Amino acid sequence: MGNNQSSTAVKTTDEIVEEISEVKDGGGGRKSSDVVMEASVSESVTDSDSDYEEDEEDVEDDEELMERLQILEDARQLKQLAVAFLHPERPVEVDPTASARCFFNRASAPEQETSEEANYREMVLADAAALKQAAIYYMYPERLVVTTDAAATARCFFDRASAPEQESLEEAEERSMALADAA
């Protein structure tokens, strides 16, 4: 049984393509469109149903064969893709006629700036951001002041060491009475 199975091998894509080209050539170098044209002319002359059915079957066979070829080609491409994913250590196979151009040297590429120009641009953008922040502070004084420094502290204006000493309520009344008497 194993010998019978091995003798009936599955046709490769190349063999199927050769068969199609032989069918299209018709042995005499004719194209399939010529065969179809001759078939339609002979059909109109003979009006034979059997000829029409045979031609229709041939067209269906050709369509099935082309569909099979397309499926086999898709399967071959999927296999190549699967091999590429499963074996990333293999080198990439490239068509020798494929060419590319440098992305950075193309005519439509943006001009490359020097490091000095890049530093200057950075400084200008930082200045613009600082000016924008200052403008926001002036435009919206009701916003709270936000700081990113955790060590930033403030001291009370009235409790500082250089602040004038606060008078008690009794001292303030006594002083206002003295000024009223003096006046």
Helix content: 55-70%
- Backbone structural class: mainly alpha
pLDDT average, as an integer?
Answer: 77
What is the N-to-C succession of helices and strands? HHHHHH
Largest sheet: none
Strand content range: under 5%
Question: Tally of extended strands?
Answer: 0
- What is the straight-line distance between the termini? 136 Å
Uncertain stretches of 5 or more adjacent residues? 1-9, 27-45
- Rg, Å, rounded: 46 Å
Count of runs of 4 or more consecutive helical residues = 6
* Overall spatial form: rod-shaped
Features:
mainly alpha; 183 residues; disordered N terminus; single chain
In short:
Helices cover 61% and strands 0% of the residues.
Description:
This protein has 183 residues and is mainly alpha-helical. 61% of the residues lie in helices and 0% in strands. It contains six helices and no strands. Helix 2 packs antiparallel against helix 4 and helix 3 (32-46) packs antiparallel against helix 4 (49-86). It is rod-shaped and about 140 Å long. Mean pLDDT is 77; it is low at 1-9 and 27-45.
Write the layout of secondary structure elements.
Layout (H helix, E strand, L loop, with lengths): L1 H6 L5 H13 L6 H15 L2 H38 L28 H25 L29 H14 L1
Helix pairs in contact: 2-4, 3-4
